[in-house]
Amino acid sequence: MYAASDLRKGLKIQIDNEPYVIIDFQFSKPGKGQSLYRCKLKNMITGAIINPTYRSGDTFEQADLEERKMQYLYGQEGEFCFMDVENYEQTFLSTDQVGEAKNFLTDNLEANILFFGEKAIGITLPNFVDLTVTKADPWAKGDSVTGDTKPVTMETSYVLRVPPFVEENTKITIDTRTGEYVTRVKE
Amino acid sequence: MSPGSKNEFLNERQRLACRRHYLWLRAKTIQSIRRFFIKHDYLEVETPQLIPAPPPEPHIDAIPSGALYLHTSPELYMKRMLSAGYPKIFQIGKCFRQGERGALHLPEFTLLEWYKVGIDYIALMEECEELILSVCRDLGMGQKIESQEKIIDLKRPWERISVSEAFNRYTHLTPDKALEQGVFDEVMVTEIEPCLDMTTPVFLYDYPAPLAALARLKKGNPKLAERFEIYIAGLELANGFSELVDAKEQRLRFEEHRKQRSNLRKQAYPMPERFLESLEHMPEAAGIALGVDRLVMILAGKSKIDDVVSFTPEEL
Question: Which of A108, B84, B169, B189 is most buried when burial is the number of CB atoms within 10 A of its CB?
C-alpha cells in the first residue's frame, strides 16, 4: 500500500484493477490548504493517459507486476510467442505490446516479459543485442569521410545507420534503448 | 578509477557552479530584507525552533524531534513577544514541514515573518509593496522585473482582488460552495491561480473564515477572515492577516482544528496553552509569513525551488 506522499515519477500503482505508471507528478499546497498531488498516469495495458488529483490520506495499491525471463520463439500474424525458460510455459504479446522491441527480436533471444497478474503486458530487452546485417551497400572508397555513416538492413528488417566499414553478414551490437550501432562483434 | 566517484564530485561542483549566481542573489535578498526592517525600526528576533506544541492546523504537519517538534513557523512565539510588549519584530529563519516537497516546496525552507502592533491587514499589504520594491531597488532591478519570460510591473498599488471576486471571475462556484464540496484548494490551484494577472503582483484577500486558524474575522462580516495571500508571477509568496487577539475564540478554533486533525488521523499536538494565556494581553496587530526561497525564485526567474538553495533534501 502506498500513501499519497509516496507518489513519484515512475511509481507503478493499481487503479480499478489496471496497472498505471506515474509519468508526471506535481505537488501543490495552496495557502494553508491541503496537499494536492496532481498526477499524469499512463495505463500500462492500454496506454491511455489520465490526470487525477490525489490528496493526503488517499492510498494506493501497488500494481501486481512481475518480470519473468523468457525466450523468444516466433512471431506470426501480429502475435509474438515467448517461452518461460524455467517451466516452458508459452505466452503471447501483441504487436502493440512488443512495440519497438520487434526490431531486435531474434529466435531464442532472452528478454524480460512483464506480467500484470497472469497477463503478459510488455517486454524489456537486454540493453545490448547482437544482430546480423543482411543488406549493406559496399563501402565506396574515395567518397567516404571519417564520421560518415550508411544505412544497412538487419535480419529483423530493422534499418539503421552504421559506419561505412560494416559489410553484409557482419554481426553488430546494437543498443536496444537507443536503437543505435555500438560496435562490430568479433567472431 | 572507481566509476562514479569522480563523476559525482564533478556533478556536485557543476551543480553548485550553476547555482552560484542564484545563491548570490539569495544572500543579497536576505541582506536587503534585513536592511528594510532595520531602517523601519523593527527588532530582529530569534525564537526557538524546537517547540513543545505546534499550532494544530489541519494541513500543516510538524516534524517530531525527540519529545518536541521542529517549528512549522515562528508565529506563536513571535506573538507571545508582541503580547509582552515588543511592537515591531521580524525574523528570518528555517521552518520545517513534514511531507512538503515539490517544485515550490522543501520540507526545510526559509521563512520571513514580521509583526506590527496597531495595524490591520490592509496597512500590512502596503508594507509588503514597500518591502518588495525596496529589495528590487537594492538589487538594482527597478520597478519592472523579468521572471520566466514575463514582465512584472511592481508599480504601486498592486492588484487587489477578493477571494469571492476571484471565484466569481474564474470559476462557476462560490467560495462557500467550494468549501461545502471540499474542493476549495483544488479549485484555487487548478482554476484560479493560473488565471491571476501575471503582469502585476496580486493580493488575494478576505478568505472564508474556516480557512483562517489565527486570523481575525472581518469587521462587519464574520463569514470572512481578514487574511490575504500575495501572488507574484502566479507564485504564492506570502500569507498575512490581522491577528486574532481573542483568547476564547482562538481556543475554540484550535479545538475545532484538533478535531479535524484527528478525523484526518493526524498526530495530535498538545494545546499551546502558554500562547493562549499570552493572547489575553495581545494588542491589535497584523503579521505575515513570506517564503524567502520563493522570493529568490521570482527574482531569479526560476521555476524550481531547487535552483535557489545550496542543497535539496535529495542532494544531502
Answer: B189
